Amino acid sequence: MTNVQHATTPSAVFADSKPHYALLDGLRGAAALMVVWYHFFEGFAFAEGSAITTFNHGHLGVDLFFMLSGFVISYAYDDRWQSSRNRLTLRDFFKRRLIRLHPMLIMGAVIGLITFWLQGGVQWDGTQTSFAWSMVALVAAMLFVPAYPGAPYDVRGNGEMFSLNGPSWSLFFEYLGNLIYALFVRRLGNRALALLTTVLGVAWVWFVATDVSGYDMIGIGWTLDTVNFFGGLLRMMFPFTVGMLLARNFKPVKIKGIFWIAWAVLFALFSVPAFAKCGAVSLNGVYELACVVIVFPAIVWLAASGETTDKISSRVCQFLGDISYPLYIVHYPVMYLFYAWLIENQLYSLSATWPAVIMVFAINITLAYACLKLYDEPVRRWLTKRFIKTTK
After folding, report:
1. Which pLDDT does position 200 carry in this prediction?
2. Which of 76, 158, 189, 371 could pair with 15 as two cysteines, CB 3.0-4.6 Å apart?
3. What was the pLDDT predicted at 12?
């Protein structure tokens, strides 16, 4: 296969020695960097008490993650369930996914606790949180038990599922997606999968376009109320099943330089100013739906079609792929500290804070890489050796 590169590192996203698409690694890393960039502007908005006005749509990187996840899981596992040589069981699948995802979830919670107490252990409104409840929040995060709004272990008091590390909400839905895939969706043929994707798409378009959440955007799922739970489930399942369809029906279409083109397209799309509502219709939501429904599948397809052509591009894609998940899961605890500094000093713009932004960005990347090399990869190697059967 000319369009794939063989996995050589423990962080490869595909099962065992199955080859994987190198440019998708780079695309996943690019999306993670853009999510981090978006969160800087989210901090400026928090500090000013206003809406995000720059890089408004950067949260769509999460939706791209969901689509990439559907693609790689379908590619890696669909043919393994009935394999006569190395058949995959439900138990094996769940062990693999836990080993891949959970060690960094635990690390993200620990770092979240540390930064929470560096910040003084207070909620957003200044209320002091007890040490006991912060430890309950840590244990709940490690066991992946989300907090309901108003729960005493919602230690930041912001209604987040995982208040020590907010972005863990998307992994909550990722876990649900893996469960639904293993128990149900992987059994569907292409026609049934396409029908399911269509139904999910229609429901998601209705939900976002009519602004059921009241957020006037796709960004939903971070808290455990009814609207966010069902909205978050739709937000995950639609791009996930789209990714599965792409993987099952994939035929390469070559475009030279697609990785850099995709990076530029994503950055441009995420930078478009927010749209005002038109009556009851969320034009901002419709724009973000268009990105997910039309642009993202094309980007994933074309990126899967491409290949790295030299050592530098191969190393760039591998590095970005390696740090993508650690960066996503550990950056927000550091951002909590950054947000507190912005609010305390009433700083509202990139122009007033760019040296700090560069420093925080560098800290996040360095922290992610250190966690990857010193913790995540060694732990996953040990767990894989201990719990996963391999065939030669």
Report:
1. 98
2. 76
3. 39
Tokens 């960066």 belong to: 327
Yes or no: say if 144 and 175 are a contact pair by the CB < 8 Å rule: yes
Q: Please report whether residue 340 resides in a domain.
A: yes
Tens of pLDDT, residues 36-66:
999 999 999 999 988 888 999 999 999 999 9
Contact predicate 350/357, CB 8 Å: yes
- 4 domain residue, yes or no: no
Rounded-to-integer distance, Cα 248 and Cα 267, Å: 28
- The answer to whether position 14 is within a domain reads no
* Three-state secondary structure call for residue 103: helix
**Cβ count near 130 (within 10 Å):** 11
Nearest to 345 by CA among 17, 43, 60: 43
How many domains is the chain partitioned into structurally?
1
Take residue 80 and report the two structure tokens written for it: 């393994």
Using alpha carbons only, how large is the chain's radius of gyration in Å?
A: 20
Task: Quote the pLDDT of residue 336.
Answer: 96
Q: What CA–CA distances, in Å, run from 247 to 80, 109, 225?
A: 14, 33, 33
Separation in Å, CA 265 to CA 53, 127, 232, 301, 324: 19, 43, 25, 14, 19
DSSP labels for 269-301? HHHSPPPPPBTTB-HHHHHHHHIIIIIHHHHHH
Residue 235 DSSP SS3: helix
Residue 229 domain boundaries: 22-387
Read off the pLDDT band of 390 (50, 70, 90): low
pLDDT of residue 17: 56
Backbone φ/ψ region at 126: left (φ over 0), alpha (ψ -120 to 50), beta: left
Question: Which of 132, 30, 14 lies closest to 75 in space, CA to CA?
Answer: 14
Considering only residues 6 and 34, tell me which one the structure prediction assigns the higher pLDDT: 34
Q: What is the mean pLDDT of the chain?
A: 92
User: Mind giving me the DSSP string for 107-128?
Assistant: HHHHHHHHHHHHTTSB-TTSPB
Residue-wise pLDDT tens digits, 11-28: 334 445 566 788 999 999
d(CA 214, CA 223) in angstroms, rounded, equals: 14
pTM score, whole prediction: 0.93
| Planar angle of CA 195, 196, 197, nearest 5 degrees | 90
Query: Are residues 75 and 14 in contact, defined by beta-carbon separation less than 8 angstroms?
Result: yes
